[in-house]
């Protein structure tokens, strides 16, 4: 099954817009569209999993621990965290690569940092 992405509220909007421009067939839902802006990490992880979407976040401080706690008792669709120094262009290219070279099932309960 194809990967579908969920953008966290902290994800730089330029990445979402650039990803949509670069690969129009990539399915990415914004935080506003999902209604997750202002929600706590555990709720965001739950909603992403319920909708079968891999969460893309820049929340390097709290998301890794919340993810570990979440997958100890539930199944996640996966999380992609962007490293601090990543450029907008590299983030977009890495996400395009992930969406074209992997399947959604490969991301279950997986946390990955990009650049890979």
Can you give the mean pLDDT? 96
Listing every helix as H and every strand as E from the N terminus to the C terminus, the arrangement reads EHEHHEHEHE
Percentage of residues in helical conformation: 40-55%
Total number of distinct structural domains: 1
Strand order of the largest sheet: 2-1-3-4-5
Strand coverage percent: 15-25%
| Structural class by SSE content | alpha/beta
Distance between the termini: 22 Å
Radius of gyration: 13 Å
Q: What is the makeup of the main sheet?
A: 5 strands, parallel
Counted by DSSP, the helix tally is 5
Unreliable segments of 5+ consecutive residues: none
Number of DSSP strand runs: 5
Shape: globular
Plain-language structure description:
There is one protein chain. With 116 residues, the chain is of the alpha/beta class. It has one domain (4-114). The chain is 41% helix and 16% strand. The protein contains five helices and five strands; from the N terminus they run E-H-E-H-H-E-H-E-H-E. It has a five-stranded parallel sheet with strand order 2-1-3-4-5, sandwiched between helices. Strand 1, helix 1 and strand 2 (27-29) form a beta-alpha-beta unit. Helix 3 crosses helix 4. The radius of gyration is 13 Å and the shape is globular. 31% of the residues are buried.
